Amino acid sequence: MVLRALSLSRHTLRFASSAVSRLAPTRSISCRATRSARIKMPTAQEITDKINADPAVQKLTSVFKENQFEIRLVGGAVRDILIGRWPHDYDFATDALPEQVQTILEAADIRMFLAGSTMVVVAGVCVWFMSSVVFRGLCLLIFKFLAPSDALAIKLQCTMLCLGLKHGTVTAIMGSGTYEITTLRKDTVTDGRHADVEYTKDWRVDAERRDLTINAMSMSMDGTIFDYFGGKEDLAQQRIAFVGDPVQRIKEDYLRVLRYFRFHGKICQHNGHEQDQLEAIKVNTHGLQNVAGERIWCEMAKILQTERAPDLMETMRICQIFHWIGLDHVTSACIERHRRLQLFHPSACAALSCYMSDADEVNKVFAWWRPSRHEQRHMQFLIDNRDTPITLEQGQDWLVEKVPLEFLVDLFKFQCNMEAVQTLQSWTVPAFPVAGKDLLKIGVPKGKHLGPMLLQLKNLWKASRFKLSKEELLQDFCVQEMAP
Fold first, then answer.
1. Are the C-beta atoms of residues 294 and 375 closer than 8 Å to each other?
2. Smallest Cα–Cα separation from 211: which of 251, 170, 187, 242?
């Protein structure tokens, strides 16, 4: 087993020194106390039993061993296994070149596709929008019946061979799962967003290119951990640190600034940070201005969904991160509003809406981060209504009018009304019983006036708290129409 020897006294002193960091928020826990809260990790035998319970993993291990190549679990899969959160997906690394991986999988009759095959989908989308309805239907049938087949897998594999070899990742398709297998690499040129890579046989060199120590471990199928940078001990001690020189790691990919906070929220139960890590972040926050907005939102959404999101946002504010990602208007009041909402476990959209108030702020964030239209509607709905008292009846009326339940759940969480949340979540939304054809049957002529009439009936139905039947509504309608 390859484990970095760690001196507890050295580690403790270095971590304790950060307790006096001028960057750490006032709510942070002392770093020495943090060290006593160790994460309990599974034994090597427990890990091995769990891994080997997957027939696909057993087969991959066997075929690579037969061909005298090494294959290991890497990155987040190892991290999650060690903290008892079994991953849904396995990522593997190997010292075999992509062409060799392809040959090995083909010989073992394992279907695959190569990284870059998404370009086929992009090309298909272009054709889709230029095609007729009939052609679109044929495309759907082809993908429905051929997507799982060997024929399509082979076509994708052949079509994208060159691009796949460049990326170095081959995805094995076994049963209902997919398993990414990436050749060991090292970065040769980086620009803060992308990297040119070349292949290597050195597992340590491959680990050096990863962002955080807890993500730089690898593990063989017998449960042996290969830990070149102390990630296992950092994980046990709930310490988040970049691999090697933090400034260099951040400059390789500025999104790592946000990833630091995301994993701090995921792993740590405290808000203690080390001085050198925060200093490296603070002097490199400007690099975030060149990161795609969609990637910013992806990371921020994960940060906002952690249990300690308000504490993390406070530390990020102190590090002056928000100016570079379009959140210039973040104040202590915003964070306190978020802290109150956090008691009710809000969605990421609800949490982000705490940091927006007027149209200019909203438009700036939407233009920069490019959330989906649904997410934009969600946040705008909360901003428009969170400061107005809303009754349960109003919430039910909105549900009837097709306002998504998740919007209303977050709105009532803003208003600390969990009783309304529970009621709405268990409430079956009734269907309005009257349609235009029902008015035609009682002699109402066709025309634009049908819409307002239906709206009038719907308002009557809602006022009755959805109790009036179709017959009662139409009877009332006839009486009103005949009234002088």
1. no
2. 242
C-alpha to C-alpha distances, 160 to 185, 275, 478, nearest whole angstrom: 20, 45, 67
Q: Which pLDDT does position 307 carry in this prediction?
A: 95
Residue 379 has pLDDT above 90, yes or no: yes
Q: pLDDT at residue 31 above 60?
A: no
- Residue 57's CB is within 10 A of a number of other CB atoms, namely 20
Alpha-carbon span 294 to 369, nearest angstrom: 5
- Reply yes or no on whether the pLDDT at 152 is more than 50: no
Partnered with residue 74 across adjacent β-strands are 218
Give the pLDDT of residue 333: 94
Q: 401-439 burial by CB neighbour count: b if 16+ within 10 A, else e? A: eeeeeebbbbbbbbbebeebbeebeeeeeeeebbeeebb
CA gap 44, 30 in Å, rounded: 32
Asked whether 119 and 205 are in contact (CB, 8 A), the reply is no
Unique residue bearing structure tokens 């060199």: 205
pLDDT band per the 50, 70, 90 thresholds, residue 51: confident
% residues pLDDT > 70 (the chain): 78
Tokens of 383: 């901003």
The answer to whether residues 457 and 470 touch, using CB atoms and an 8 Å cutoff, is no
pTM to 2 decimal places: 0.80
pLDDT in tens, 395-416: 999 999 999 999 999 999 999 9
Which pLDDT band, with edges at 50, 70 and 90, does 479 fall under?
low
Cα atoms in the 13 Å half-sphere on the side-chain side of 288: 29
- Burial class of 314 by CB neighbour count within 10 A (0 to 12, 13 to 18, 19+): buried
- What sign does the dihedral 18-20-25-28 (CA atoms) show? positive
Structural contact between residues 356 and 383, judged by C-beta atoms closer than 8 angstroms:
yes
Q: What phi, psi does 373 have (nearest 5°)?
A: -60, -40
> For residue 9, how many C-alpha atoms fall within 13 Å in the half-sphere facing its CB?
0
Question: Is the separation of the CB atoms in 46 and 303 below 8 Å?
Answer: no
